[in-house]
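thought: user wants a sequence for this fold. calling inverse folding tool.
action: design(structure=
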């Protein structure tokens, strides 16, 4: 309710959303957005409470136009809102211009002011801007502030030029990093694919290990939730553990490999609910003792298998890890220490994060953070040595890209905008490049640690090759970044 003038009869100023709203249809289009990747702002960076663009656009419009005068107007506006909220109409100039015109007419010819004080991932302010409103977005979370700048401010300020420079410098960062550390991810030489096919490792499957507590055994136990590598209707491949002496070894079985042994159930691993079973002697180790080995520094890790891909073959292929694979890893481990010391001297801080991880105590949401129980006490502990090397190298190259842009005469604020996107790309790469990233056997893809809002312990993990073109790599995410940047640049 608003007043026309002081002392004059009050006038109702009901808005469309106060009387009616196509909830069912807008909800359907909002749900559909979850399956839209290319161009959607959700691919820019993870934000937990991100609002759908469909509902943000529809509710903003419905809140800024007057209530209908009759049933005919109601039906027309209702149908228009349904069309307006569709993803494919996000950049439809005719529909967007009509929405802007309606809003201007309803607000005396002036763009209304829209304030979102808790803007988060930027869905509401993005759609308010698209609808021609004078928009203000506020946030106190620094991650959200950076997301908002990259979603709202920089695309609006710099336009399509930004897309070209982000692409250019993103490729520069990748190539410079590859020149320096690409040798630690050597192409496959096992001959599995045949001569000259050039198979590329896309991931390395690791298992954390503990010692069997049976005094007469003392075998190393690879902790694995299950053994499936591929579990599809037309493809079943698994790791098969077998014992030689007191050593647990593996071979690959299933479609395209050795026949899967009768009675073998790949869904049953060596650990469940932190309770481990020794494959050698069958001894069961209680959860508290498993945690104790980690806390006392007695746990380790072991590379089990390598995931491969070749441009000449369809799909993923697997082989057991070899000494050559471990040699490349150990060389990366050694180089990490050299580079870490060098960057500490240059930057004045340790490039590997040393902030403490959440304690994970209590009965509520804190239980989602269980990594401290296993001596993963700092954020740096969530990465293996080669992952640390990859990430600090990417960070270094992004910093160098900024310096190079300034040397080439780029405006400082513009250069800052370009490297902001490169920084977000490193963030997304880090979500895959850590020891809590898992191998999803139903899609044969690497899944990042934020499958849910938690930092849970993961017994076996997959280490991504950031220089491949498969899921989790720099290149795999880069196309999404450029698509969403183009989308944002065309939204205003």
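)
observation: tool returned 492 residues.
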């Amino acid at each position: 309710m608003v007043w026309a003038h002081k002392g004059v009869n009050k006038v109702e100023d009901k808005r469309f959303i106060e009387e009616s709203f196509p909830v069912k249809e807008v909800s359907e289009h909002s749900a559909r957005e979850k399956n839209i990747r290319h161009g959607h702002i959700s691919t820019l960076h993870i934000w937990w409470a991100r609002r759908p663009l469909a509902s943000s656009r529809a509710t903003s419009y419905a809140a800024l136009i007057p209530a209908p005068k009759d049933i005919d107007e109601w039906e027309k506006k209702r149908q228009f809102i349904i069309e307006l909220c569709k993803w494919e109409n996000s950049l439809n100039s005719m529909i967007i211009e009509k929405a802007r015109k309606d809003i201007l007419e309803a607000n005396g010819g002036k763009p209304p002011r829209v304030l979102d004080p808790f803007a988060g991932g930027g869905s509401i302010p993005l759609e308010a801007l698209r609808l021609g409103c004078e928009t203000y977005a506020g946030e106190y979370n620094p991650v959200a502030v950076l997301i908002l700048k990259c979603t709202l401010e920089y695309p609006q300020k710099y336009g399509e030029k930004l897309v070209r420079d982000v692409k250019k410098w993103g490729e520069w960062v990748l190539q410079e990093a590859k020149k320096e550390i690409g040798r630690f991810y050597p192409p496959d030489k096992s001959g599995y694919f045949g001569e000259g096919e050039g198979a590329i490792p896309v991931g390395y499957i690791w298992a954390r290990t503990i010692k069997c507590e049976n005094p007469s055994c003392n075998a190393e136990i690879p902790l694995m939730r299950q053994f499936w590598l591929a579990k599809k209707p037309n493809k079943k491949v698994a790791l098969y553990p077998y014992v030689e002496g007191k050593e647990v070894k593996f071979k690959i079985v299933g479609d395209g490999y050795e026949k899967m042994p009768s009675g073998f159930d790949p869904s049953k691993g060596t650990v469940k609910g932190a309770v481990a079973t020794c494959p050698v002697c069958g001894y069961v180790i209680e959860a508290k003792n498993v945690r104790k080995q980690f806390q006392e520094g007695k746990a380790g890790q072991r590379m089990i298998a390598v995931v491969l891909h070749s441009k000449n073959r369809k799909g993923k292929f697997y082989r057991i890890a070899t000494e050559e694979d471990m040699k490349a890893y150990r060389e990366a481990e050694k180089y990490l220490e050299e580079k870490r010391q060098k960057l500490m001297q240059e930057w004045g801080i340790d490039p590997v994060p040393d902030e403490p991880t959440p304690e994970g105590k209590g009965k509520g949401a804190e239980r989602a953070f269980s990594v401290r129980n296993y001596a993963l006490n700092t954020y740096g502990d969530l990465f293996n040595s080669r992952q640390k090397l990859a990430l600090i190298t990417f960070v270094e190259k992004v910093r160098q890209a900024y310096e190079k842009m300034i040397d080439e005469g780029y405006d400082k604020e513009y250069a800052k905008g370009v490297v902001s996107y490169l920084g977000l790309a490193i963030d997304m790469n880090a979500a895959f490049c850590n020891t809590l990233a898992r191998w999803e056997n139903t899609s044969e893809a690497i899944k990042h640690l934020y499958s849910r809002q938690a930092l849970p312990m993961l017994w076996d993990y997959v280490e991504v090759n950031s220089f491949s073109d498969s899921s989790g790599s720099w290149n795999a995410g880069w196309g999404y970044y450029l698509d969403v940047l183009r989308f944002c640049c065309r939204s205003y």
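thought: summarizing for user.
answer: Here is the designed sequence. The first helix runs from residue 16 to 19.
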